[in-house]
Amino acid sequence: MRDFDFEVVIGLEVHAELSTATKIFCACTTAFGREPNSQVCPGCLGMPGTLPVLNKKVVEYAIRAGLALNCRIAEFSTFDRKHYFYPDLGKAYQISQFNQPVAVNGWVEIAAGDQVKRIGVHHLHMEEDAGKLVHGGANLAMADYSLADYNRSGMALIEIVSEPDMRSVAEAVAYLETLKAILEYTEVSDCRMEQGRLRCDANVSLRPWGQAELGIRTEVKNMNSFKSLQRALAYEVDRHAEILREGGTVVRETRGWDDERGITVSQRSKEEADDYRYFPDPDLVPLVIPQEWVAEIQAGLPELPVARKARLMADYDLPAYDAGLITGTKVMADYFDAACRAAGLSAAGRPPEGKTREQAKQIANFMIGELTRLLNAAEKSFVTSPVSPENLVELIRLQVAGTISHKIAKNVFEEMFATGQSAGEIVAAKGLVQISDVAAISAVVREVVAANPNVVADFKAGKERAIGFLVGQVMKLTKGKANPGLVNDLLREEMDRI
User: Of the residues 188, 214, 427, 459, which has the maximum number of CB atoms within 10 A of its CB?
Assistant: First the structure.
């Protein structure tokens, strides 16, 4: 349904910092968080007379990412100089790829509502990063001074340029989430947005419904999280719509997202390619990529998110929603697979059996619910989880065996997370074994029934929910150790005798 006057057109330019040990054209380390200007050399500082030497691992990672994005890998690729002047760019030009990028004509599929939509990838190219300016004030406008840190200068980047195929803010966010997952799965980048290792620029335009020609676009920069991308695009779409509804003309420009104020701010008029004075870099020879190398990299690609989601749904009968959440990040999917291996759930290649389905769903439920909640609160990830996949499986087995109740299992899990102890150690130390002795529970049931004649009368009068109160009383007296199912059965038997 069209509930908007205009069709939204969005394209994204995504920069990912590659997980190489050294920079793209020199041997300086890529370690994060070092002292300013402590990992630089004459090359990445742009000193006259220095020559770039291409890092082979950068090319390998670019090819791997291009293949994962269904791109065609160019047999012949070149580097160009992109000229602009800014204090964090020592050479006054950036070595990038313009005319002949390493990968072209790809695509990814995203979830668009209930449908799957294909988003085109125009090209992927390699380039070096610039340095970083640290402003001595709340922002650039209020700064008394700016300091240049060139540690980031020369870091290896790939830029992935989409086609303008996204038709809503939600599609743009879904595309970036999908892209991030693919890059993580291929291990070409850790995509840590809080460290600037995955950055996104967006091109936004609006056009009347049915018009083939694209509207005037603006570029939006400075979006360093999915939330800021969503907010910035929503704001920019509304800004364009207001201008067009009032008969105005959108100005083609670059705008920055101000997260604190929740608005985009004009930065400069939008540059054209000619403004950058691109020309082939005379210090770097053209790159000829053997097809045998491409085939070798293709053969080594890991199971990607879409295929992994399909496998979890087929092998373990997981719902699409659960499988999508688990495979949304590689570390979470790896944790799930490790837990399934620990549980002996090797379901690959055969229809899931009842036991396999049930245990896999229990593992998924704990991961999506309790474990994710605790990890987020502690600012940890599945890699640094205090609860190992093996310990999670041990807890589930204790619950399935009836050794502990579901309620106690959740309490034990929280202590496992806090202490790193195993479920068995905690249950043994605290005497949390579930009571399943019929005689012991029957005695407590009789006591509770005798103490609550009004509730018993309500139940016998047809108020089924009244039994919940009685179950709660039994659980309270047994300190949560009684088997809930057995408690329910014994209560009904006792009240039937009255």
Answer: 188
Q: Structure tokens of 435? A: 């009571």
Task: Name residue 233's amino acid.
Answer: L
What Rg do the C-alpha atoms of the chain give, in angstroms? Answer: 29
Q: Rounded to whole angstroms, how far apart are CA atoms 110 and 173?
A: 10
d(CA 223, CA 11): 14
Tokens of 237: 């779409």
207: which residues sit within 8 A by CB, 6+ positions away? 6, 7, 9, 213, 214, 215
Tell me how far apart the alpha carbons of residues 161 and 314 are, in angstroms, rounded to a whole number. Answer: 33
Please, is 454 exposed, middle or buried when counting C-beta atoms within 10 Å of its C-beta (0-12, 13-18, 19+)? exposed
CA 348 to CA 333: how far, in whole Å?
Answer: 15
> 372-399 burial, b for 16+ CB within 10 Å, e for fewer?
eebbeeeeeebeebbbbbebbbbbbbbb
Asked if 445 and 491 touch (Cβ cutoff 8 Å), the reply is yes
| The pTM of the whole model exceeds 0.90 | no
Q: pLDDT (tens digit, 9 = 90+) per residue, 4-52?
A: 789 999 999 999 999 999 999 999 999 998 999 999 999 999 999 999 9
Residues 208 and 240 sit within 8 Å (Cβ to Cβ): no
CB proximity list for 39: less than 8 A, separation 6 or greater: 28, 29, 30, 31, 151
Among the listed residues 52, 69, 148, 156, the one whose alpha carbon sits nearest the alpha carbon of residue 105: 69
